[in-house]
Amino acid sequence: MTSLIWSVRRELWEHRWVYLVPVLLGGTLIATGAAISGMNTSGFAAATNPMSPRIARNLSLGLDTTTRMMFATTVIVAMVYCAEALQSERHDGSIVFWKSLPVGDATAVAAKAAIPLVFLPMLGLAMVLLCQLVAQATFAGTGGRFSSSLGTPMAAVTEAVVGTLWIAPVYAWILLVSSLARRAVLLIAFLPLLLVSMIERLSASSSGIGLSLLQRGVGRYWPRGHLDLVGGVDGLRAAPATLLVRSPSLWIGVIAAALLLVAAVRARRSA
Amino acid sequence: MTARGVRRTIAGHDALAGVDLSIGDGRVVGIIGPNGAGKTTLLQAMVGLVPVDGELRVLGQEPWRHRQQLLRHVSYVADVSIMPRWLRVSSAVDYYAGVHPAFDRAVTHELLARADIEPRTRVGALSKGQAAQVQLSLAMGVDAQLLVLDEPTLGLDILYRKRFFDMLLTRFAEQRQTVVIATHEVDEIQHVLTDLVFMHAGRIVFSCTTEEYEERFVEVHVHPEHVEIARAMGPMHERPTLAGRVMLFDNADRSRLSLLGDLHRPSIATVFAAVVGESGEAA
Lengths: 271, 283
Fold this sequence. Notes:
The complex is a heterodimer of chains A (271) and B (283).
Chain A: H1 2-14, H2 17-41, H3 53-85, H4 88-91, H5 95-99, H6 105-139, H7 153-180, H8 185-204, H9 208-215, H10 241-244, H11 248-270
Chain B: E1 2-10, E2 13-22, E3 28-32, H1 39-46, E4 53-57, H2 67-70, E5 74-77, H3 89-99, H4 105-114, H5 128-140, E6 146-150, H6 158-175, E7 178-182, H7 186-189, E8 195-200, E9 203-209, H8 210-216, E10 217-222, H9 227-232, E11 237-241, E12 244-250, H10 254-258, E13 261-264, H11 268-276
């Protein structure tokens, strides 16, 4: 366990941007959101001049979008991190240094997997909870009601856990490709899937594979009301975490992620 | 450490072509050979970094299968600076202390201070020699049963090399660690070694203790008038000098040789060249 903790610390020393990007971007989003909300809510008072439902809905949508953007940011950061995680140590030759210490390949890969599966979701959750505090403060005393599907701490925690499990096979797949590819990890990881998706789109005029890919990635956090991205827009609407947790697809994905990580351990061992 | 019939083939080339070797506890073994001889592959196999065919056991364990457990008792320094450039020296020390049960950070800090290396420096900002010194300082901080050093002084200046080998000798004498060291600086380490192993083309072509080496090999600066007599005694190797011929003998009668010229202890490089042969084939 000590080796795992030190190996996670090592990952954060090497990839400082993993926490700097979400913190800086999240901080900027929250500050901007607070400023915009503050300007739009000034003058409202629950007793004398309550906020209209329309303004409350618009502000809620804005804060909901901010929340989703913060989760989406952690997903994008996690994917870029996964692409680098096992490839960079082979690229600069430092893998021999790390492997000359009594830290097994399973521990090393577990530490790398812990960044997208544990560290970043926790960081994203912390930012979202901070955003919720700002939202509550914005609406306090205005008579308006903040409503968002991710607007309560429990909903945010559930989303952080279930959303991460849902995307876990994607992270594990990128980590596996990172353990094998010499360069262009994300291209190698996604190009075949994108080609299959394009062929499906051209031949069958459907977007099932493309939508599935998006739903397993940042598409899950696509803002509500802005869904017209791919032909079958309704397909992009993410299932709520409370429903998703009962979906066999989620648990099949978790098993696939575990198998892909085992393959990544074997690949690192032979590197 | 025991190796029997150890082989490793890379892209059709035998990096190790059937290595048989046994190293006892408390020995300081020098592995000597040209580039491509298989030294690095053998050392990497000893610490479980590469798989091999045949039988290989180090401290009673199969290195490839039990690398993590084995490396609790083994310290390894690779032949090139393999530390990541982004890593701070102090972070490397912290990481070692965190994951290595036998690491003493005080030893490493002392060595770093002696080398005038500032702990906050990133590896990328160090010179090649300083980076090598950091690696050695970390490796020496581990109280290991076995120290495996692959060209540890490559890129280091002569003063640091001397200091390092003196330190190695002191530590060996104090703690009776087993040390396996591959190097091109053969004559600099001669006084440190207890055993010599010559490698060539993936094979061990010669091995002996340094005592045996001293007893067996002698170099004679043969007087010009005795050259034919000396040749009749079957030298392993001979070369011309301004003053005559220098001949290398293995297990020859030293009292007879002393009548033919001045006797000297040959350098390891000279014996290696004679054993491997001018053509590169093992004699």
